[in-house]
Specification:
By secondary structure, the chain is mainly β. The protein contains one helix and 24 strands.
């Protein structure tokens, strides 16, 4: 049921149809959105970076949703539970630059309030954020370098949505992070031994009304190995490719369908994740609720993103069992009209 792609080529043919459908361990198709036979407002593009440190979670996003751009940054202090988020809505995405493909290129936005700059050169990724007015003038400034491990694999899917729409997505977990995050007077220095980052890179043409679940984590095992989770459902035709995987030391261990067992509306209740091959059994216990709503009439988004700890096990590709204890991550439910 899972079709692994290995042959490079274009994402879309001359008629704007997907040339291939499936998943891969690295991005191999050129995201030629110029071939998409849809109105520009239906094309959605985003780069979402997430950083886990021993003390906090930090995230920065540049997105162009067609009707408008969306720039947002948020940070969560694990010890105090303090969460702060700010965003900008940019009419028609003016001033937003997003790269064509995920492995090399630059994404940026800058105005008189905020500056976000992401750059990938094939060997490392730079995430730079300057937002002087963030958090009532406390300000936030981040300069982070993410260096993937040698032969680092990513979780890539190319799937249809409905009759003539599609989603091209790259998720890269467990990239060791170095640099700093300064929030107000507090500055945290990031070291790759205990700080780690991930990227959610999305391009596609979506239905106006959309829904999905996503669960993710990047962290460390007690022996220093890196461990990541990426689980998702609710979007598009997943019959030939899911995004479900465990990532150990940069290697993807692919899973099939995964069930999200949770109580919608009671998001702080424990979530349970199991797969259809009995390789995954995880309980996610939330400790923080991040709820973000955007209502601009034609554009509406509501995300319930829970931060918590994963406990349980996964069976790796070689049949061995990997126990997971208190791995900090998130799980979310997202509804959108866009």
């Amino acid at each position: 049921m899972q079709n692994e792609l290995t042959k490079p080529g274009p994402l879309l043919d001359e008629q704007g149809r997907l040339a291939q459908v499936g998943w891969s361990r690295k991005p191999i198709l050129d995201c030629n959105l110029e071939n998409a036979r849809h109105h520009r407002f239906r094309v959605k593009r985003w780069d979402y970076y997430a950083i886990f440190t021993p003390n906090q979670f930090f995230s920065a996003t540049v997105a162009d949703l067609g009707y408008a751009g969306n720039i947002f940054v948020y940070t969560l202090d694990f010890k105090t539970g303090e969460l702060h988020e700010e965003g900008l809505v940019i009419p028609l995405g003016k001033g937003i630059k997003l790269e064509r493909n995920p492995e090399v290129g630059e994404t940026s936005f800058m105005n008189d309030k905020a500056s976000l700059h992401f750059k990938a050169d094939g060997e490392q990724r730079r995430v730079e954020v300057q937002w002087a007015g963030f958090h009532h003038g406390r300000g936030i400034h981040a300069e982070i370098v993410l260096r993937p491990l040698p032969a680092h694999e990513s979780m890539n899917i190319i799937i249809p949505i409905g009759a003539n729409k599609f989603y091209d997505n790259t998720k890269i977990n467990c990239m060791p992070a170095q640099g700093f995050i300064q929030h107000g007077h507090h500055r945290e220095t990031l070291q790759p031994e205990n700080c780690i980052g991930s990227l959610d890179w999305g391009r596609g043409v979506w239905e106006y009304q959309s829904y999905w679940n996503w669960a993710s984590s990047s962290g460390f095992l007690p022996n220093g190995q890196t461990i990541g989770l990426n689980l998702g459902q609710g979007f598009g035709d997943l019959s030939k490719a899911t995004e479900n995987a465990v990532i150990l030391n940069g290697k993807v261990h692919k899973l099939g369908a995964v069930k999200f067992d949770y109580k919608s509306g009671d998001y702080l209740h424990p979530w349970h994740f199991t797969d259809d091959e009995k390789r995954l059994d995880l309980t996610f216990t939330p400790f923080k609720d991040r709820t973000a709503r955007t209502n601009l009439g034609i554009i509406f988004s509501e995300v319930h993103q829970m931060f918590g700890r994963y406990n349980g096990y996964v069976i790796l590709d070689d049949g061995s069992k990997l126990d997971i204890h208190d791995l900090i991550g998130f799980a979310e439910e997202h509804h959108a009209r866009w």
